[in-house]
Design a protein that fits this description.
Methyltransferase, Cobalt-precorrin-4 Transmethylase, Domain 2, binds S-adenosylmethionine, 277 residues
């Protein structure tokens, strides 16, 4: 008979403390150990529901070593509930390593579903959730980041990104610079007091968040395109100045030429303007 314990992957609220399932509360109460990304944070939920289960930390800096220890506990018959700071563990949060360690050790793994910011933002934005791609945070590594943005050019599904408030405007501008103007949504503070959805074209959203300092937690959603790369790629052999001059030669007024050049290259008008002065 297998006397090993189980791993329960538990979803927890992404803002509103009431967004926790009855099953999650029972599992958190009955588990022998709760492995939490930040024990102080999880303590707030446990205190509000009078749960006294032993807490231990499991975060991205101790995932392997702590994962092994937790596996040993489960092989000894203990049940472990895994929680992250918010939402579902394993979604831009630690979890994957422990889940796979359990699978390798033959430990049963089950999920206790809860909210996740990506899906909540997708449905709230109304931008189109029939098919979507979840990218989470853009990679910091420049080459990997470029690769993700390159794919986005011909993506026909809605793409979901997570972003921190202090990077929001830059990231929106970077996406705009790469794919040009596309319909998008920025969803803020889901399930909290200042929950908000801003829909518009990427260019407008860049302008808005340059003017209004972003505060809180954000999800960016980019509507899928028609599958064709933006026309910028057709002009990649042409410099910005040459492109602009070509438009002038074709009879465009200066202002119109800057606008058209920016739109055709998928960059901002300011970038064209800066190149011309
Ligand atoms: N595991 C979480 C989930 O299931 O959504 C994601 C954790 S990730 C470390 C944190 C990011 O998720 C935030 O920077 C933000 O982009 C997004 N996020 C989490 N809670 C949110 C909320 N209430 N409103 C908007 N975005 C949120």
């Amino acid at each position: 008979m297998n006397m090993a314990g189980k791993l329960y992957i538990c979803g927890t609220p992404i803002g509103n403390m009431e967004d926790i399932t009855l099953r999650a509360l029972r599992i958190l109460k009955e588990a022998d150990i709760i492995a939490a990304e930040d024990t102080r944070n999880t303590m707030k939920i446990l205190n509000s529901y009078d749960i006294k289960t032993r807490l231990t930390s499991y975060h991205k800096f101790n995932e392997n070593e702590k994962g092994q220890k937790l596996v040993t506990e489960m092989l000894d018959g203990k049940n472990v509930a895994l929680v992250s700071d918010a939402g579902m563990p394993g979604i831009s949060d630690p979890g994957e390593i422990l889940i796979n360690l359990c699978r390798d050790a033959g430990i049963e793994v089950t999920v206790v579903p809860g909210p996740t910011a990506a899906v909540s933002a997708l449905v709230l934005s109304g931008i189109g959730g029939r098919s979507f791609v979840f990218e989470g945070f853009l990679p910091e590594n420049k080459r990997k980041r470029r690769d993700v943005l390159e794919k986005l050019k011909s993506e026909t599904r809605t793409t979901v990104f997570y972003e921190a408030p202090h990077h929001l405007a830059d990231t929106l501008e970077e996406i705009f610079g790469c794919i040009g103007n596309r319909e998008a949504a920025v969803v803020r503070e889901l399930t909290k007091k200042y929950e908000e959805v801003k829909r518009g074209e990427l260019g407008e959203l860049v302008g808005f968040y340059r003017e209004n300092t972003p505060r809180g937690e954000f999800v960016i959603l980019i509507k899928g395109g028609n599958g064709e790369k933006p026309s910028s790629d057709k002009f990649e052999t042409l410099g910005i100045k040459e492109h602009y001059n070509m438009l002038i030669e074709n009879g465009y007024e200066r202002k119109e030429a800057i606008k058209k050049c920016a739109a055709e290259r998928g960059i901002s008008r300011r970038q064209v303007y800066n190149e011309l002065i």
